[in-house]
Design goal:
This protein is an alpha/beta fold. It is built from 27 helices and 22 strands. Strands 1-12-11-10-9-8-6-2 form an eight-stranded parallel β-sheet.
Length: 804
């Protein structure tokens, strides 16, 4: 009998209940007990949703991030948060979000008493007086508490989920605190759940962390493994003592290229942990094992989980490699996308495997369902045909149970379910909504060489752009968005509900644009943005205006903490019927004499942040997006917009996990950006922006994009991302972010000056811009105004220093 299980379930709730509970707690509007009650209710509901499985994950729930949870379980807290008053949850949010020290905000143009707009709120913000801004309960701080920097945040493998990076040093020690996982286990047991605890494995934990030790910057993380393994042994023993039979230990680094040292570390770790009498299911996902298959198959564990969506080619070799006493769990349902599984196609290859493995076969989604929305049943706004093609988390588990019944009882036992599935799959395959002959013709006519080349090299363009814009040294700008106020969101809700008409909605948004322009002019910024008040999301906004996209109402997915995104559904060939941003950009430019940036989302980010069709190569879909957005770029230029930013925040996260496959991806990703950007004149300045990721190892590809200006995150990593410029001479202009917008902390002027001076050691000062790390949508005006005022002051100090 094949058994079923899940590697993890979405934790935000079908209606984002966790998001709203977190934000209420951070604002000081609810108690710690109220937040914990919401967490308990969500866990209970999600366990019930998975009750049809043989094994249900426990410990996959988190109030912010599962990697940060593991750091606290292992007692690996940064020194800067040790010894504070308050409970562990307070410290947890200090690491996740940071905290400003009282009185450190720089004076703005109207002093420190700048008030937020009436009713202003923010996704991550605290109260106006900053009480609770780190997520701590009001009153938890001593009056003299110093500022606390947030932990670095980066992408979880090749997903759009962000984790808090573990920090290591030569003096790092580990001390077990199993309270979180044991408490959740007790909750599950009380509800009759067949619990399978979920842990991040020790070797992946070290691989995902960074050394933060100025005295020992070259510390080998693997040197900490002997200190770490006894704590993992204690943890497994605590679970065994609690009566746990199976524990899932995730080692996703097994799908990456591993050096001999890291391969040895995996062997060492699991030979050490085998002393505990508990069954370990070693879980890998996000790719194939390839050369690591023998290693994974022969580690001393009771079972192995394989991503059979991305790594199906591993299955046949593993049948020969895996010892006959071990379980093989196959991820046969895609945990990363929302398309219905072709159940008969899966059964065709799975049935012979099941015949060979018998009771040793487990079935599961490919990875945690964290990366898909919770439930399709609520999506009344999707038309019936399109909805029939989709499966969210709950529906994926239904598919899993159908597959298991077909394996265990025969296909006749699920004949009706298989027939309904076959009809849906065939409907999608044949639908004229998916295939557009006009788009196919445009693709055939696009010659890459002509579409991707700028008229002149950067040196020539830079002179012509400076002559046009007359910008000072260290020019200041922002990344695009400004706070989405309560008024903005209310107007959007009223418009969608039909309570106000399009004219009233446009008037309200234009008033917000005017406000943003006034504030930026008062602050003294050099290149302005319109603030994006009219935009719900940087991908969804554009997808709503492109043919080939569809949109869910409740299809939310966690990006980090309480931040959720609702990825559009890219189901068909892409085209742009009408201009998307031109009128807004023209209106904003009419309000100021300073340069106004046109703001677009690039094709690679549109691709990587959507649920993408799986019936053609991703590169083909991306080229369709590039041609559509290129039309928008050219229309903005014709409308007189001289600076156009094309955000490619997700460029790096699309990288395959194996370096051997990088170049193929980078070739077509860079080509698509150039198709989008490079039809403009020399004096039109093209910007791009990239979010929290590691860029050092792909700098040649970023340079090949040939954007005139690139802005990237560097403040949270203390300019570490600029280490790449020690060995690589970046040819164009760059804005290394100096203001970490994912934290409520307001940086000091000196901090921003120091960061820029670090940058000037690697990049000529005449090619540096001063800007935040990312857009300001999730902040509140009370934080934004003093932070940007300080940023402008920092730029002025830099100009004075470098002019002398």
């Amino acid at each position: 009998m094949a058994r079923t299980h899940s590697l993890g379930f979405p934790r935000i709730g079908a209606r984002r209940e966790l998001k709203f509970a977190l934000e209420a707690y951070w604002r000081g509007e609810s108690s710690r007990e109220a937040l914990q009650q919401v967490g308990a209710e969500l866990r209970s509901r999600h366990w019930q949703d998975q009750s049809g499985l043989d094994w249900v994950p426990v410990g996959d729930f988190s109030f912010y991030d599962q990697v940060l949870d593991m750091s606290f379980t292992l007692g690996n807290l940064p020194a800067r948060v040790r010894g504070y008053a308050g409970n562990d949850l307070d410290n947890y949010f200090r690491v996740a979000r940071g905290r400003s020290a009282p009185g450190t905000e720089p004076a703005g143009p109207r002093g420190k008493d700048v008030a937020p707009a009436s009713g202003q709120d923010s996704v991550l913000a605290g109260n106006a007086d900053d009480k609770g801004a780190c997520g701590c309960a009001p009153g938890a701080h001593d009056a003299a508490e110093a500022g606390v920097a947030a932990g670095e945040m980066t992408k979880w493998f090749d997903t759009n989920y962000h984790y808090i990076v573990p920090e290591f040093g030569a003096d790092t020690t580990f001390r077990l605190d199993p309270s979180r996982i044991l408490a959740q286990l007790a909750e599950a047991r009380a509800q009759g759940v067949a619990a399978k605890p979920v842990l991040l494995g020790p070797v992946s934990y070290l691989a995902l962390g960074k050394v933060r030790d100025a005295a020992h910057p070259d510390l080998d993380r693997l040197s900490l493994l002997p200190r770490l393994l006894p704590v993992y042994t204690e943890l497994l023993q605590a679970l065994a003592d609690a009566g746990v039979e199976w524990v899932q230990v995730d080692e996703p680094i097994l799908v990456t290229e591993l050096s001999p040292d890291w391969q040895h570390a995996l062997n060492l770790a699991y030979h050490h942990l085998k002393s505990v009498r508990i069954k370990v299911l070693l879980a890998t996902y996000f790719g194939p094992l390839k050369e690591n298959a023998w290693l994974a198959a022969n580690l001393p564990v009771a079972g192995l989980h394989l991503d059979a969506i991305r790594g199906r080619e591993d299955v046949k070799p593993l049948l020969n490699l895996l010892p006959t006493h071990k379980v093989l769990s196959l991820g046969v349902i895609d945990g990363r996308n929302i398309w219905k599984t072709d159940l008969e196609e899966v059964l065709d290859w799975l049935e012979p495997v099941a015949a060979r493995l018998g009771d040793r076969l487990w079935l599961a989604p490919s990875c945690s369902l964290l990366h898909v929305p919770v439930d399709l049943a609520s999506e009344d706004g999707l038309d019936a045909e399109l909805k029939s093609w989709l499966a969210f988390a709950r529906q994926k588990l239904d598919e899993l149970c159908v597959l298991a019944r077909a394996i265990n009882e025969g296909r006749d036992a699920v004949r009706d379910e298989l027939e309904a599935n076959r009809q849906a799959v065939e409907s999608r395959r044949r639908s004229p909504r998916v295939h557009n002959p006009a788009v196919q013709a445009a693709m055939a006519q696009c010659t890459t060489e002509a579409a991707t080349a700028r008229q002149s090299p950067y040196a020539v363009r830079a002179q012509r752009q400076q002559a046009r814009f007359q910008l000072p040294a260290f020019p200041t700008t922002t990344i695009g968005s400004f706070p989405q106020t309560a008024e903005i969101r209310q107007a959007r809700r009223q418009f969608k509900a039909g309570e106000i008409d399009a004219a009233a909605y446009q008037k309200a948004m234009q008033a917000e644009v005017a406000r943003c322009v006034r504030e930026q002019e008062t602050l003294g910024l050099d290149v302005l943005v319109h603030g994006e008040a009219e935009r719900n999301d940087m991908v969804e906004y554009f997808g709503e205006q492109l043919e080939g996209y569809a949109f869910s109402r409740f299809g939310w997915v966690q990006s980090y903490g309480s931040r959720c995104v609702k990825p559009p559904i890219l189901f068909g060939d892409i085209s742009r019927p009408d201009p998307m941003t031109v009128a807004w950009a023209q209106h904003a430019q009419s309000l100021t004499k300073r340069p106004m940036k046109g703001m677009l989302t690039g094709p690679v980010t549109m691709l990587n942040w959507s649920f993408v069709r799986d019936d053609q190569p991703r590169a083909t879909t991306c080229r369709q997006l590039a041609l559509a957005i290129r039309q928008e770029v050219l229309d903005l230029e014709k409308a007189g917009i001289g600076i156009i930013q094309i955000d490619e925040a997700a460029l790096r996260e699309g990288l395959p996990l194996r370096r051997a496959q990088w170049q193929e991806y980078l070739d077509w990703a860079v080509e698509c950006f150039r198709i989008t950007a490079n039809g403009v004149a020399d004096d039109t300045q093209i910007h791009t922006h990239m979010c929290y990721s590691e860029f050092n190892d792909i700098m040649p590809a970023i340079a090949a994009m040939d954007a005139d200006v690139i802005t990237i995150e560097t403040s949270r990593s203390d300019m570490e991302l600029l280490d790449a410029f020690d060995d690589f001479s970046y040819p164009n202009e760059i804005g290394p972010g100096v203001y970490d917008i994912h934290s409520p902390n307001v940086p000091t002027v000196q901090h921003m000056v120091d960061l820029m001076e670090k940058a000037a050691q690697r990049i000529p000062a005449e090619r540096l811009w001063v800007n935040p790390d990312c857009g300001l949508k999730t902040r509140q005006w009370l934080e934004v105004l003093p932070a940007l005022a300080g940023m402008v002051q920092a730029a002025r100090q830099l100009r004075a220093r470098h002019a002398s």
